[in-house]
């Protein structure tokens, strides 16, 4: 049974936009944090953005002003709107969900930004 389903990745030109979405199984309860990580070749997996159940948001400095994270607690979904994409945003993006008891990871979705 798939716990997290990601969508929205793809190929886009520099300056373009993409919207990533992640749907967590409704069987996952007591979710605190939902967010997105990314990993580019030769680099460590890094936090892109996260949002708590209460609405507290953290962004990586590199994406502030360009990306917007949001969540729908009733639907157990989290989205990441990515604007003004740059080639350095190219990476595999992973949805991350943290409940009170467990951490869940998506399989990853490729985002490629061409110059």
What key phrases describe this protein's structure?
11 strands, 0% helix
Architecture overview:
The protein has no helices and eleven strands. It has strands at residues 4-7, 10-13, 18-24, 31-39, 46-52, 57-59, 67-72, 77-82, 91-99, 103-105, 109-114. The strands form two sheets. Strands 2, 4, 5, 6, 9, 10 and 11 form a seven-stranded mixed sheet that branches. The protein has a four-stranded antiparallel sheet with strand order 1-3-8-7, with no helix packed on it. The chain is globular, with a radius of gyration of 13 Å.
| Subunit arrangement of the protein | single chain
Q: What is the approximate shape?
A: globular
% residues in beta strands: over 45%
- Continuous helix count: 0
The percent range for helix content is under 10%
The description of the largest β-sheet is:
7 strands, mixed
Structural class: mainly beta
Query: For the residues shown, what is the average pLDDT?
Result: 96
Query: Helices and strands, in N-to-C order?
Result: EEEEEEEEEEE
Number of DSSP-assigned strands = 11
CA gyration radius, whole angstroms: 13 Å
Low-confidence stretches: none
Distance between the termini: 38 Å
């Amino acid at each position: 049974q798939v716990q997290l389903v990601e969508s929205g990745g793809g190929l886009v030109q520099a300056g373009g936009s993409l919207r990533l979405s992640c749907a967590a199984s409704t069987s996952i309860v007591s979710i605190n944090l939902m967010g997105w990580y990314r990993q580019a070749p030769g680099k460590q997996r890094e936090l892109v953005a996260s949002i708590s159940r209460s609405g507290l948001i953290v962004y990586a400095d590199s994406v502030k002003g360009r990306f917007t994270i949001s969540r729908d607690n009733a639907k157990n979904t989290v989205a990441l709107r990515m604007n003004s994409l740059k080639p350095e945003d190219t990476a595999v993006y992973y949805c991350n969900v943290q409940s009170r008891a467990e951490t869940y990871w998506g399989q990853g979705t490729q985002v490629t930004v061409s110059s």
